[in-house]
Model the fold of this input.
Amino acid sequence: MLMNESLTKLSKFFKLEADRGYDNRAVVGGLKRMLDPWKEQAKQENVPEPIIQVVESRLRDYSRLAPLSRKEALQGLWNRLSENYPDLPKDLFSAEPSQESAADTPPTPARSGSAPPAAVEEPHPAAARPPVEQPDSGDKKPAKPAREPEKPESAGPPLALDAPLTTIQGVGPKTAKTLAKLGLSSLGDLLWHLPRRYDDYSQLETINRLWYGQEVTVIGTVESADLREVRGGRMKLTEATISDGTGSLRVTWFNQPWLLKKLKPGTPIVLSGKVDQYLGRLTMANPEWEPLEQRQLHTNRIVPVYPLTAGVNGKWLRRVISSVVERLAPRVPDPLPESVRASAQLTTLHNALKQAHFPDSWEALKEAQHRLAFDEMFMLQLGVLKQKKEWEQLQTRPLPVETNWMESFVRGLPYQLTPAQQRAVDDIRGDMASKTPMNRLLQGDVGSGKTVVAAVGMGIAAANQSQSALMAPTSILAEQHYRTLVGLLPAAAAIEPSRIRLLIGATPESEKEEIRQALEAGEIDVVVGTHALIEDPVRFKQLGYVIIDEQHRFGVEQRARLRDKGDNPNLLVMTATPIPRSLALTIYGDLELTVLDEMPPGRQVVETRVMFPRERNRAYTFIRGQLEQGHQAFVIFPLVEETEKLQTKAAVDEHAEIQDQIFPDYKVGLLHGRLKQEQKDDVMAQFRSGELDVLVSTSVVEVGVDIPNATVMLVEGANHFGLAQLHQFRGRVGRGSAQSYCILIPDEADDTQNERLRAMAATSDGFRLAEMDLDHRGPGDFLGKRQSGFAELRMAQLTDIRLIEKARKEAQRIFSMDPELHEPEHALIASELERLWTIEKGEIS
Done:
């Protein structure tokens, strides 16, 4: 394209702006002032509309950018224009700004006395200076003026992110101790102390155009300010009148008398806050404010709001973080090579950090958050792939069985396997016949028949003179598995009942010792237990197969200790919590996945109904009818005892009323998490044997309890539970031949609030409910204790399927090219991965 006058004029403006250090004074009133006349001229000269729009979008918010961001914005814009107009000068920004330019001049303290941003001091052992102690409020006693952080990205070697906070001017030992309450102990902690939300004060308005309720920024001059006492002298009110030529605004601050010294008549200031009304006049109460001359951190922009603690002032922390971000962000090495950034269309890490803290626009913030979230998910996926590779490199003794043995086992079962169970059995048989140890997640809804699938592996192990261990999270569940296996394995696998043992906390010590000796001698084929299995005295002669039930209830160390009792034994982890596929691929991507997605024939569908609080008597009348037929019922409450914070019913308080007032003719038991394990086991034994008719409980009955005679599950305060958890409750009934029911009673008859509960009534598909739960509540209910495999996610959402797939794709691409991450461009990825992951030999999910 040919050059024209409008672009020549633009080049002159940009050159002058660069020479002035990007102070936005190349044009009187700022570059934005020249936009309208420039657009008219450009249109007359037939400059393409897309180019005009690009120039307008870059310059419209130019005044709100920091000098370094302004430089990047103009250079980026000029590079784009140069692509379309090759005759434009290429060296427009080659000259450095003069030493007197605004960008290099240290900010002077504003006339109002407001403190400039704190500066990061580079640690220098030979010339250390005592830190200036930071006051509790950044407005009461301003920190000493400090030099502005350097801007260039090549300003020196990378600073130590683990440098203590006392290297920041204005932070002494006392303040550092206070910041430690926020988990902040180093410069790196501050850099990653991301805002919890943002206030949008970027909308600049004149006073005559303000309206009630508006969140806005106003630039004006102090006309008058005075201090008066209100409420009998108990409160001091600083009151100022601000004018901008179009009108005046009354502004008040409560209990901040020191502001009077700063708000001198004639001082230009920037105010940001919500417009209020008093006696028909528009006002602002306690707005954020700062002098017009200094860089705006608290006003006239999208303002970050950080987590705080007592003794830390938000304004002060914002200033400190700003100086740290300005100084450190450009120096933080970017672990992602250019190939990954280009392929995934990501911004640089230093830009993401700057925009995440002090965004220039909502679009820039979204782009920054996406980059930081991608990094977390990318590292998570790489860690998962690395663990899977390490597991696949392990060797174990193969445990094969012939087809006729397999057919004999299946014939010995009391029922026919479903197609889904048969596929799972084939997976396990194939894994155990391999030299690579099995590492498989068996996922199945409540009642889908996971235990019998796990039992196949026990039979295979026994046929190869190997032992099996099943670890369950509770004694109740362990006993339940034990009874099931004693009913299955003798007939199906010819394992004698005496060679199947139960080892739990309540097992008598003499029996424990007998079991320990028999395990070490190889006289026991299958042991079922709780964490008692991982105690040091327990040793196996030949442990070849480990099953972890409800694996999210165990920590990594507990699982590793059981696995280490054998020589790389085959591992099967089971869960009855349906996990959405996106989550399974992310968190459990190092395991092979088997899903039991169909129920055994004859399993009753539990009829589910939502009833409002006013219908509670009807619900209890229905339960009475079931009790009269000889059945039993659960009544679940969200709390053990009532609290002031949550206005909902609690188990301990309601138990007495249910026993005395509602079901005086029946026996009502009480179960909750504060009882000792022996007490819990005793209550459950009474309920299972029929000594108790109704069990009042908290969520401790969620997992695995099998009471075939129970036909009603009533959940009070159902709105406090997730759908996945409610589905687990529902799975506690319907395990016998009688029709069963689940009744959900929320705290209030609120249609919007109870929409989720209606989904429970509409479907019995646990996977569908799990997807809904993930969208609504996040991944917490699915994660359990899996915390050492990866760092806590700050930005990434495990509901973001597109992000997961993008990160997984890039991680697989890098891993396929360089699985050991030995290439120079992957060195930073390798070190970051080492920092985030605690990878032990073969450790899994």
